[in-house]
Design brief:
- The complex is a heterodimer of chains A (114) and B (112).
- By secondary structure, chain A is mostly beta strands.
- Helix content of chain A is 0%, strand content 49%.
- In chain A, strand 5 and strand 6 form a beta hairpin.
- Chain A is globular, with a radius of gyration of 13 Å.
- The N and C termini of chain A lie far apart (36 Å).
- In chain B, 0% of the residues lie in helices and 54% in strands.
- In chain B, strand 4 and strand 5 form a beta hairpin.
- The termini of chain B are far apart.
- Classes of the chains: A mainly beta (114), B mainly beta (112).
- Chain A binds chain B through residues 4, 31, 33, 35, 41-43, 45, 48, 50, 56, 58-59, 88, 90, 92, 94, 96, 100-108, 110, and chain B through 6, 32, 34, 36, 41-46, 49, 89, 91, 93, 97-105.
Chain lengths: 114, 112
């Protein structure tokens, strides 16, 4: 089945530690996104990538980093510089040609900082 | 600055009634507007897209309207069921590739 896989689903980390969230898609999509969602709030865009080896900051990129070395993969690193990292993180992708920009989301990764 | 507003208060309705959710936007000129459903602890799922030249779009019990003059989209669920209980998010979008920005979502609760 085609889709987006995020891992891990739940993650705990101590303050001061970096942590990397995985996002893999087999939909052959060019574009991939990372969003953050806090309780009772909407989705806020962290980073997005239109094509391999290229990515842009979203609205809340501070304290995060990404890479896009392969079309299928768009990992997100939450660094120790991120002041409030506890949140629900969602990865998404969409194709660029001949479509209407529908986003396909993964099941999310819930990060808790202890 | 661009702004997308959805009613932050939960909408409570009785089973069988029609639910109507509102999405208002400012400083946008979207060519399309998308609606998504999100269940607790899950990723959003795409429901419908409406284009700026379409006044209305239907899919089964769902109906979306798009008024570019009022800068508003309405999302209707007819004959609502408890299984429709979820948070519904709207996302206006321009033509071409772009970053997609979502409204905060409205939580719908359908009681039996």
């Amino acid at each position: 089945d085609g889709g987006i896989t995020q891992s891990p689903k739940y993650l705990f980390r101590k303050e001061g530690q970096n942590v990397t969230l995985s996002c893999e898609q087999n939909l052959n999509h060019d574009a991939m996104y990372w969003y953050r969602q806090d309780p009772g709030q909407g989705l806020r865009l962290i980073y997005y990538s239109q094509i391999v080896n290229d990515f842009q900051k979203g609205d809340i990129a501070e304290g995060y980093s990404v890479s896009r070395e392969k079309k299928e993969s768009f990992p997100l690193t939450v660094t120790s510089a991120q002041k409030n990292p506890t949140a629900f993180y969602l990865c998404a992708s969409n194709g660029r040609t001949g479509n209407t920009g529908e986003l396909f989301f993964g099941e999310g990764s819930r990060l808790t900082v202890l | 600055s661009q702004k997308i507003e959805q009613n932050s208060e939960a909408l409570n309705i009785q089973e069988g009634k029609t639910a109507t959710l509102t999405c208002n936007y400012t400083n946008y000129s979207p060519a399309y507007l998308q609606w998504y459903r999100q269940d607790p602890g899950r990723g959003p799922v795409f429901l419908l897209l409406i284009r700026e030249n379409e006044k209305e779009k239907r899919k089964e019990r769902l109906k979306v309207t798009f008024d570019t003059t009022l800068k508003q989209s309405l999302f209707h669920i007819t004959a609502s069921q408890p299984a429709d209980s979820a948070t519904y998010l709207c996302a206006p979008m321009n033509t071409g590739f772009q970053k997609l920005v979502f409204g905060t979502g409205t939580r719908l609760l359908v009681s039996p």
